[in-house]
Amino acid sequence: MVYRGPYRVRPEEKDRPSIEHPNDAIVRVTRAAICGSDLHLYHGLMPDTRVGMTFGHEFVGVVDEVGPSVRNLKAGDRVMVPFNIFCGTCYFCARGLYSNCHNVNPNATAVGGIYGYSHTCGGYDGGQAEYVRVPLADVGPSLIPDWMDEDDAVLLTDALATGYFGAQLGDISEGDVVVVFGAGPVGLYAAASAWLMGAGRVIVIDHLDYRLEKAATFAHAETINFTEYDDIVVHMKKITDHLGADVAIDAVGAEADGNLLQHVTAAKLKLQGGSPVALNWAIDSVRKGGTISVMGAYGPMFSAIKFGDAMNKGLTLRMNQCPVKRQWPRLFEHIRNGYLKPSDIVTHRIPLEHIAEGYHIFSAKLDGCIKPLIIPNAA
């Protein structure tokens, strides 16, 4: 696929990527996914998203070719590729902060490298394609375990790992009340992961009933449609002994609904890096001394966040792009032991040639869409 401007993507022939560095690999993509954060690109909200770019930071595939320096992979290997591109040796990678790698993006002081996520994130083409170039191939990709289905594996390359990481950053203690804002894929995985970390009660808030129904069945969470209440923060206080939740997870990010002024200044006028409605609700609905984990993606500009409230309540705010590969060993075991089945949230499997329709369905929340996978022509 290629980007042709806001709300316009289409399938288009491009040259097969080639080995540009001895450490590169070329992967034939067998599964990709559209992420909620891809919609920020699709809607024209991410700076320096250039016409002609191929999106897609969630993908798995088969190694088609490797550069002469690659030692850990060979042609024919089934691999899963984390959305982070990272060197594995810099100050940040040495500390497991793969999403903050200092060597893979000219804008590295702001963000690491991400496949298919604008030149702000390095300008790498992504995996919503038949083939993709994978730099530093000995560092990022891992072999897909023989027992793992590709539909599960592709969700480990971002959505599941990010949701799990969101619960980790919540520093959940046994019996904690955890509220998750957003019932998209990351919010569903964060809610399910919160139980694995000892939560005593998990509440998911959204405004789409079909997604809340999935939160109830997939993540076994209490659900709240915020449009049914005059003030969702007041309601949250009422149902938590007027204290507030112990932990709040923002799994919405830049395009949050619920406040017209925030939506217009962020999505329409682009005066903010994103509409922080969900994050401000999280700040106000968590108890004093509570913890907020931010997994929703925001742009590099400022956003009108209620920082004073956070400071005066003594909150702990934790956030980062997920260092995906760090989460895999535990998630492999949770999946193998049947505690998580990532592909249970997949609602659509869309051929690559119909990707424009896939973006439209996902963006407009049509047909009960929660997580669409992309099936390339050559898969």
Give a short synopsis of this structure.
The chain has 379 residues and is α/β, with parallel strands linked by helices.
String of helices and strands: EEEHEEEEEEHHEHEHEHEHHEHEHEHE
Largest sheet: 7 strands, mixed
- Uncertain runs are none
Q: Give a count of the beta strands, DSSP E runs of length 2 or more.
A: 17
Q: How would you classify the helix and strand content by structural class?
A: alpha/beta
- State the share of residues found in helices, binned by percent: 25-40%
Instruction: Assess the beta-strand content as a share of residues.
Output: 15-25%
Distance between the termini: 15 Å
Radius of gyration: 20 Å
Globally, the shape reads globular
What do the pLDDT scores average to?
Answer: 95
SS field, number of helical segments: 11
Summarize the topology.
Layout: E1 2-5, E2 8-10, E3 25-33, H1 38-42, E4 59-66, E5 78-81, E6 84-85, E7 113-114, E8 131-134, E9 142-143, H2 150-156, H3 159-169, E10 177-181, H4 185-196, E11 201-206, H5 209-218, E12 222-225, H6 232-238, E13 245-250, H7 260-268, H8 277-285, E14 286-294, H9 307-312, E15 316-319, H10 324-336, E16 346-351, H11 355-363, E17 371-375
Parallel strand pairs: 10-11, 10-13, 11-12, 13-14, 14-15, 16-17
Antiparallel strand pairs: 1-2, 3-4, 3-8, 3-17, 4-5, 5-9, 6-7
Helix pairs in contact: 3-4, 3-10, 6-8
Walk me through what this model shows.
With 379 residues, the chain is an alpha/beta fold. It contains 11 helices and 17 strands. Strands 3, 4, 5, 8, 9, 16 and 17 form a 7-stranded mixed β-sheet that branches. Helix 3 packs across helix 4, helix 3 crosses helix 10 (324-336) and helix 6 packs parallel to helix 8. The protein is globular and about 60 Å long. The two termini are 15 Å apart. The relative contact order is 0.16.
